[in-house]
Amino acid sequence: MPALSALPFLKPAQLRSPRSPPGGQRRHTLPASEFRCLGPGDAASVFEIEREAFISVSGDCPLHLDEIRHFLNLCPELSLGWFEEGRLVAFIIGSLWDQERLSQAALTLHKPQGSAVHIHVLAVHRTVRQQGKGSILMWRYLQHLRCLPCARRALLMCQPFLVPFYQKCGFQALGPCQVTVGDLAFVEMQHAVRGHAFMRRNSGC
Q: Which segments constitute the N-acetyltransferase domain (predicted)?
């Protein structure tokens, strides 16, 4: 008898999931890979990755621990973390801005009425760098922003050597940024973000 025709004769118990371990509790495994918005409880893990990624390059971090908590309290929906087996391996933190270009105030403020998402920081854990995770996370983040009714464009500032990376992600250079941090100068970049209504019609957001 072919295997498929034999299935109706199997007892229901044989079609169920494998039996639970002794004690009646199922074993829960963490997803291999997960993207989700961050919350204040993730701040310490975020800062650990950021500190290692930026201190050696620029001597400072874009966001300090209290600033990370500040933004993850005010606008967690503008963050995105990449978790592998429950461990944070990469993240982006953003906030809203209400002017055409970034200014020094944009480093610390969240403007709820703004339509520009200021991307403060993207960082990848040192153990998984050079694997393309930064560009994948940015692509996922931009898709996430397209489902938010407030977001019309994304802005960021970066050092000149990072301009080619962000151009590959679809950003366009706007020229020198007004913001300076110590002796560091930055290039300001922009990416257009589609409106919520468009994405709802076309991608089920």
A: 33-194
